[in-house]
Amino acid sequence: MDKIVIEGGAPLRGEVVVSGAKNAALPALAAALLAEGEHVVRNVPDLADVRTMGRLLAHMGCAFERTDRHTVRIGVAAGTRPEAPYELVKTMRAAVVVLGPLVARLGRARVSLPGGCAIGARPIDQHLKGLEALGAQITLAHGYVEASAPGGRLRGATFTFDGVTVTGTENVMMAAALAEGTTVLRNCAREPEVVDLATALRGMGARIQGDGTDEIRVEGVERLRALDHMVIPDRIEAGTLLVAGALPGNDVTVRGCVAAHQEALVEKLRLAGASVEPVPGGLRAVGDGRPRPADFRTAPFPGFPTDMQAQMMVLLTVAEGSSVVTETVFENRFMHVQELVRLGADVTVEGKHAVVKGVPALSGAPVMASDLRASAALVLAGLLARGTTEVLRVYHLDRGYERLEERLEPLGARIRRVKA
Ligand code: UD1
Q1: pLDDT tens digits for 231-249?
Q2: Candidates 62, 117, 188, 257; catalytic one
Q3: What is the pTM of this model?
Q4: Residue 220 beta carbon below 6 angstroms from any ligand 1 atom
Q5: Does ligand 1 lie within 6 Å of residue 309's CB atom?
Q6: What's the gap in Å between 318 CA and the centre of ligand 1?
Q7: Which of 83-92, 108-117, 134-143, 361-370 has the lowest mean pLDDT?
């Protein structure tokens, strides 16, 4: 298994261009299942999760190919096999977003239940309840969700999500696009990735309004046309690079990131003493001296993203004082803490809260990545620590970041991947 080896303490300076958003690309690729034809999705990051989605679409009988490193072509024919097997869904929960499109276009679907994952239970009850509200009949058997639309077509309905769910909103919105009549979805996720998917669906001929607010209205249409969509920049990759810039002594400009997607993070970086300013086409983060402590809590967009919690915590490990980090979106999303402690951080966790007492410096050590964002945090910690840090289980990092080490190295980081 590959590992990333970092010699900490080298100042980072320069510019980096952000990739396309993984969490917008995956539902856009699933949206291709809504229409027969030749679909094109652009600005797709070259990541393990995208390859998994490609295998899943191929398993269903779709043609999936990259025409260049960041452009994907998907051929969807009439004979799509509406099944997502456990072997693929277990490695990537987001695969569950194929359920809505399949049952909407083909009238039936069989999708494996994702099972538990490292950052908590992550049920899909809201996806299923939303689809049931649209008339789907759902049974659970042998670890699979089996969904069918009586008469072959879903019907528009009003549905309120019990809690805010990003992929749940996406799944039900996609299903509603082909349902008969009007659907009103309340308590929807407002994340930029939901807006990007709605934009993609409108490009296919869907009639959707209200995305980006908590109420989405969909007038179902009988048929959609093929997709040609450009995915938005990845706000989590951009945010991770902004935190890198905010570490003491660094100065990083992230080109291509959308400032409106970064407001909650930028506010907290500034509270921690970093300077973050808009520059043409991006944001520049400069870290000057030891950070100040900053409390923050994660929340659905436009709140502070749970996917940035671990990375922001790294900055606070060397702050002059104590910060309280509260995780409200996922239980058990503090697995990076025990690894940060191995690097000399002083962090204690109690339930949803982590108390981060700033220390003057971290010291390098071998650490183990436990999930996607935790692994990015460990890379940042390695940049900050004195001496050598080895981040093991890099496959977690590769699920969501396109060669992160190749983005950081030109900025001056002493970082390399060691092939196993
Ligand atoms: C998406 C993102 C992920 C991010 C998360 C929260 C993708 C592919 N992934 O994941 O990177 O961390 O949003 O911003 O876009 N829940 C239920 N029932 C459901 C669905 C969710 O109880 O049916 C709960 C979850 O357990 C969690 C919370 O709702 O506690 C939010 O989860 P959700 O927004 O659904 O996360 P994902 O869409 O899986």
Answers
A1: 999 999 999 999 999 999 9
A2: 117
A3: 0.97
A4: no
A5: no
A6: 30
A7: 108-117
Beta-carbon contacts of residue 369 (< 8 Å; ≥ 6 apart): 339, 375, 378, 391, 392, 393, 394, 396, 397
Q: In the chain, what percentage of residues exceed pLDDT 90?
A: 91
Which two tokens mark 211? 């995305």
Question: Is the pLDDT assigned to residue 117 strictly greater than 80?
Answer: no
Q: In the structure encoding, which two tokens stand for residue 261, read together?
A: 């997607």
Atom number of ligand 1 nearest to Cα 97? 8
For ligand 1, atom 33, the nearest C-alpha belongs to 165
Pocket test for ligand 1, best of 166, 265, 331 (most atoms within 8 A of CB): 166
pLDDT of residue 59: 97
Q: Pick the residue with more confidence: 79 or 210?
A: 210
Ligand 1 center to 372 CA (angstroms) = 14
Of 377, 378, 419, 372, which is closest to residue 52 (Cα–Cα)?
372
Q: Kindly indicate the confidence band of residue 331, based on its pLDDT and cuts at 50, 70 and 90.
A: confident
Residue 120's pLDDT band (boundaries 50, 70, 90)? low
Active site residue 117: yes
CA of 163 to the centre of ligand 1 (A): 10
317 CB near ligand 1 (under 6 Å): no
Mean pLDDT of the chain: 96
- According to DSSP, the residues that pair with 388 across neighbouring strands are 7
